[in-house]
Design brief:
The protein is α/β, with parallel strands linked by helices and 329 residues long. It is built from 14 helices and 10 strands. It has one domain: Alpha/Beta hydrolase fold, catalytic domain (Rossmann fold, 3-Layer(aba) Sandwich). 38% of the residues lie in helices and 16% in strands. Helix 2 packs across helix 13.
Length: 329
C-alpha cells in the first residue's frame, strides 16, 4: 500500500533555491520523485534521514552546467509516495532495490549511460548507494562520501545519547508524533541557524505523522551492534569497499557533525587511504548547507580531474531531448 503526501511539486518549487521541475517514476504503483538536471556524466545524489532532494539544491545548481545531476527522493521521503515497508529486512535494502529500478529506467528510456555513474552520498545515502553498487557491478565509476558511513560502526563509536533514546519506545513514539527528530536535525545538523524558509523546506514533507514513517524506521535500523537488523549487511558493505579502492573517491567532511564525527572519518581514511580528502572545519552534518560554495568548488575540481578515467560519454540522443522538454518521467 502507498500513500501520496500533502506537499505538491509546485509547492516545493516555491522553496528557496529549488526551481526544479522534477520527474516521477512508478515503483509498482507508488510514485518516486526525482530531479534530473543538466546533460553530461551522471551524478546520482543520495540523501539520508531525515532529508530529501532539497538537500542537494546548491550542488545541483552548481554542477548542472557540466554534469547530469540526478537527485531522487527516497521512497517514503520527500515528495515520493509513502510505503508500508515490510518488516524483517533493513529499510535501506528496499531503497537500494528501488533506486536500481530507477537507474534502469533512466538508462533504458532516457539516454543515461550504463557505466560511469558517480555516487554522491550523504548520511544513509552512503549505505544505500553502496548496496546499489553491489546490485549493478560496473555501473559506478566514482564515489563521493559526505558525512556518511558504509561499514559496520567501529567498536569505539558511541551514538549520541538522544539519538540512542529515540530508537526505543516510548520516546520514539513521542518523537514520531511531534516531528521532534526532523526539527532537531535541521537545528543541530548545521553550524549556524538556517533561514526560516530553508528550515521550513526541510520540514515540509514530514508535517504529518503518516508522512514520516520512514524517518522513524531509519532511526530504528541504525546498525550499532550484532543484534541490530542491519548489522550483517553493514559488515558486507565494509567488505565490499575493498573492491572499490581503485575508483576515484572524494571524502568531504563537516567537522562539527555531532553524529558522524572523527571516529567515522578515521575509519573512512583507513579503508580508503587513496581518497581525496576535504575537511570543512566550520561545517556540521549538513556540509552542503554550511560549506556550499567550497564543496561545489572542490567537487568540480575532483570530477574534472577524474573524468578521463571514466568510459567515453556518448552524445545525448533524441529521447533525452524529448524528456527534457516535458515527456512523462
Amino acid at each position: 500500500m502507498s500513500r501520496a503526501i500533502g506537499l505538491s511539486a509546485e509547492q516545493a518549487r516555491r522553496f528557496p533555491d529549488y526551481p526544479f521541475r522534477g520527474f516521477w517514476f512508478s515503483q509498482g504503483g507508488a510514485r518516486q520523485h526525482y530531479l534530473d538536471e543538466g546533460v553530461g556524466r551522471p551524478l546520482l545524489m543520495l540523501h539520508g534521514n531525515p532529508s530529501w532532494s532539497y538537500l542537494w539544491r546548491h550542488v545541483v545548481l552548481g554542477l548542472r552546467d557540466t554534469y547530469r545531476c540526478v537527485a531522487p527522493d527516497l521512497m517514503g521521503m520527500g515528495l515520493s509516495d509513502r510505503l508500508d515497508d515490510p518488516v524483517g529486512t533493513p529499510i535501506a535494502v528496499h531503497r537500494a532495490s528501488e533506486l536500481n529500478r530507477l537507474v534502469d529506467h533512466l538508462v533504458e528510456e532516457h539516454g543515461a549511460p550504463e557505466h560511469g555513474w558517480t555516487l554522491v552520498t550523504h548520511d544513509w545515502g552512503g549505505p544505500i548507494g553502496l548496496r546499489l553498487a553491489r546490485l549493478r557491478p560496473g555501473t559506478v565509476g566514482r564515489l563521493v562520501f559526505l558525512n556518511t558511513t558504509g561499514f559496520s560502526w567501529p567498536a569505539d563509536y558511541r551514538l549520541p545519547r538522544g539519538l540512542r533514546a529515540i530508537r526505543h519506545w516510548p520516546l520514539s513514539r513521542l518523537t514520531h508524533h511531534t516531528n521532534g527528530f526532523v526539527h532537531a536535525a535541521v537545528r543541530l545538523g548545521v553550524s549556524g541557524p538556517l533561514p526560516t524558509a530553508v528550515r521550513a523546506a526541510y520540514l515540509a514533507p514530514y508535517r504529518r505523522p503518516r508522512d514520516r514513517g520512514a524517518v522513524l524506521r531509519f532511526v530504528k535500523d541504525i546498525p550499532l551492534g550484532p543484534t541490530d537488523i542491519g548489522w550483517t549487511e553493514a559488515q558486507r558493505l565494509g567488505d565490499d569497499l575493498d573492491s572499490l579502492t581503485g575508483l576515484p573517491t572524494f571524502i568531504g567532511w563537516g567537522m562539527r557533525d555531532p553524529v558522524f564525527h572523527d571516529v567515522l572519518l578515521a575509519e573512512w581514511t583507513r579503508r580508503l587511504p587513496q581518497a581525496a580528502l576535504h575537511l570543512y572545519p566550520h561545517a556540521g552534518h549538513y556540509v552542503m548547507e554550511d560549506a556550499a560554495d567550497r564543496l561545489v568548488h572542490d567537487l568540480r575540481a575532483f570530477l574534472s580531474s577524474s573524468d578521463s578515467r571514466l568510459p567515453r560519454l556518448a552524445p545525448p540522443h533524441d529521447s533525452v531531448t524529448r524528456f527534457r522538454k516535458g515527456a512523462p518521467g
